[in-house]
Design a protein that fits this description.
Elements (H helix, E strand, L loop, with lengths): L1 H6 L8 H10 L5 H19 L7 H21 L5
Helix pairs in contact: 2-3
């Protein structure tokens, strides 16, 4: 999940198909991260199908919300240091 969160902020300005390929390659370690990956890939597919670009306000809004959602999820599951 942390690897995905590191990729997403660099998405604006990149072709969405390229962002999709990077996301689809990663996050296969466990069921929950695969589900997160599949959800993000599905959203990216919808943007690509609509011929959207990564510079559109709608994409940037989705991106910000997605990053925030998964940062919160990661914070909830992260184990505190001993």
């Amino acid at each position: 999940m942390a690897a995905l969160l590191a990729q997403l902020p660099a998405a604006p300005g990149r072709p969405l198909a390229s962002v999709r390929v990077d996301v689809a390659r990663g996050m296969t370690s466990d069921l929950e991260t695969r589900r997160a990956r599949d959800s993000i890939v599905g959203d990216l597919d919808r943007f690509i199908q609509a011929q959207a670009t990564s510079t559109l306000p709608e994409f940037r809004t989705w991106l910000a919300a997605t990053i925030a959602e998964y940062e919160q999820w990661l914070a909830r599951i992260a184990r505190p240091a001993p």
